[in-house]
């Protein structure tokens, strides 16, 4: 699907950068330089697509729609005492409030804001009989103008199972998840299970404890502590960021512009945290990356135009000598480029070997603890009045859940470490290729006597891949008995020896299989990243080399048409003036 660039232009903070990239692309098409056109298209695609998506999630009736209305400062999304939201609502920036419905068949239609309820509520759209994919809303909100997208998801755990499925399926869209709970009901089992799943799917998760206006100020600290402890216990002891709020009070105070009393709702702390996350997060990096890459292209296009001008003014014999010298220099520089890329692959392979060794050591660091936990759990179940058949199911569940929690906890920390090492490696090779590109430009400038002053350019390496792991296809744990049904009639005292050893071997088997999966996915992720980096390096170098060569070829052919050449030289001077102006602006943005 084509990117709707016109919507990006509505973002005030991006519009100047976007207009420069757009104008530069028009210039490259006219000159022409198809490699620069391609690079600019990719820069624009990333600038358009890379937004910060905050998904609001939680069990039904926690007040998610009220919370988002408080963000908007208006009663836009429907609220009520029954489970309401049956389809996601995606909110982006727009100068004026507008709403659309996207259907599962790909069709889309604009609707009045007051008609949103007919598409996202169970009452008006039971079991999504209208086949709504999502409702989309444009709204003039500061968060959104900075590139943030806000998503209201269906509540989990209601009588409508499909709502939970829709909410879970939206996880892969999220850069961060704001999970809403409330003081009027403790976190349920299904809610905690959902949170464990969410934590493995999103890079960042934080919490809001809603409806604090329904308890006394003296009761609030105890509820906050209880909720924090419960979350920490179920999320493997990680830091919990929790904001006590009253979404209802915040909305009421915003509707009457009561900023002083808004403070009592706890809203300012939550709002400021989100603003800081957006402003200091990846959006700022995305714009700087785009400005830096745009600056490189502007600088290289300037050299290309000057090269063309000098070639036009050279005699035919002199031009042939200069082109021959340039091609010799270029061939040597290209060899250096390929050698650098070969070294990149080699270093990434070495990093893959390091990953394999680290995962192999998990058998010594993690497996003993898992065995001890399993032994204690097994003995506890033997003391209980648990039927043998039930015990098989309990042991199977225990092994899978503990294995998943332990390995997910490890990979969350480890992937950050391995990503940092990959980024350091990639940065070195970006620097090397930048040196070869500079050599290309410097060689052409020296041969054709062009005044060339290297500019201060900043290199930004963006993370290409966040490693993820899947535990949805565990081998089934079965005891080594022919008839599972017969376990219901076997006294539990006979399950101690052989059965225990069989269960323990299944734990080790599952551990080995999943470690193998981690090793494979990490190694493949590294290779994919290396291919992506190498592709970008080659594209950048090819853009410069091929652009310079094409400029020389055009100059050779255009020397025969003196009348049109004069007009072309005047147009080139105008293009150079524009490029130098853009270079100044892009330098300030990188």
Would you give an account of this structure?
- This protein has 590 residues and is an alpha/beta fold.
- The protein has two domains: 51-279, Rossmann fold, CATH 3.40.50; 302-583, no CATH class.
- The protein is built from 19 helices and nine strands.
- The chain has helices at residues 5-9, 12-30, 34-49, 64-72, 117-120, 142-145, 161-169, 189-199, 220-234, 247-255, 259-262, 267-279, 282-313, 316-360, 362-365, 367-383, 388-447, 498-558, 562-589; strands spanning 52-58, 89-93, 98-103, 108-111, 132-139, 148-152, 176-182, 205-210, 242-244.
- Strands 4-3-5-2-6-1-7-8-9 form a nine-stranded mixed β-sheet, with helices on both faces.
- Strand 7, helix 8 and strand 8 form a beta-alpha-beta unit.
- Helix 2 (12-30) runs antiparallel to helix 19 (562-589).
- It is globular and about 100 Å long.
- The model is unreliable at 1-13, 81-85, 157-168 and 460-490 (pLDDT under 50).
Using brief descriptors, characterize the structure shown.
590 residues; disordered N terminus; alpha/beta; Rossmann fold; 2 domains; 19 helices
